[in-house]
């Protein structure tokens, strides 16, 4: 099997509130990285050598982004797309490894797909 951690539908649905909060935090951190002023700050100062405040903010946002992505990995949750909030939860159906698929705006997990099918291959549970 490709994944060592597998979720039941109930276990995956129980993770949704955490996922929603973490996606919001990641989007906020990314926004601080993509701002033109923040990019300029990266060239002017480094948070590791006492760089100016803008450089420190950008450095902190980068660390938050890295840690947030690592938190998904640590839980065994697959973050596919931050913009849309596309998330896959590894699961097993009838002895076959699949993904329980959720996207921001859905109230609960209602779809699954084969490991290599992607979002376009989603099927109702």
Description of the molecule:
This protein has 125 residues and is α+β, with helices and mostly antiparallel strands. It has one domain (9-124). 46% of the residues lie in helices and 20% in strands. It contains three helices and five strands, in the order αααβββββ. The chain has helices at 9-34, 36-44, 53-75, and strands at 78-81, 86-93, 96-102, 111-114, 123-124. Strands 1-2-3-4-5 form a five-stranded antiparallel β-sheet. A hairpin with an 8-residue loop joins strand 4 (111-114) and strand 5 (123-124). The longest helix is centred in the N-terminal third of the chain and has 26 residues, at 9-34. It is elongated, with a radius of gyration of 18 Å.
Features:
125 residues; alpha+beta; five-stranded antiparallel sheet; 5 strands; 46% helix; DUF2203 domain-containing protein
Q: What is the helix fraction of residues, given as a range?
A: 40-55%
Q: How many separate structural domains?
A: 1
Give the N-terminus to C-terminus distance in angstroms: 21 Å
Radius of gyration: 18 Å
Integer average pLDDT: 87
Question: How is the biggest beta sheet arranged?
Answer: 5 strands, antiparallel
Number of strands: 5
- SSE pattern: HHHEEEEE
Strand order of the largest sheet: 1-2-3-4-5
Beta-strand residue fraction: 15-25%
SSE-based structural type: alpha+beta
What global shape is seen? elongated
Low-confidence stretches: 45-49
**Helix segment count?**
3
Pfam families: DUF2203 (PF09969)
Protein name: DUF2203 domain-containing protein
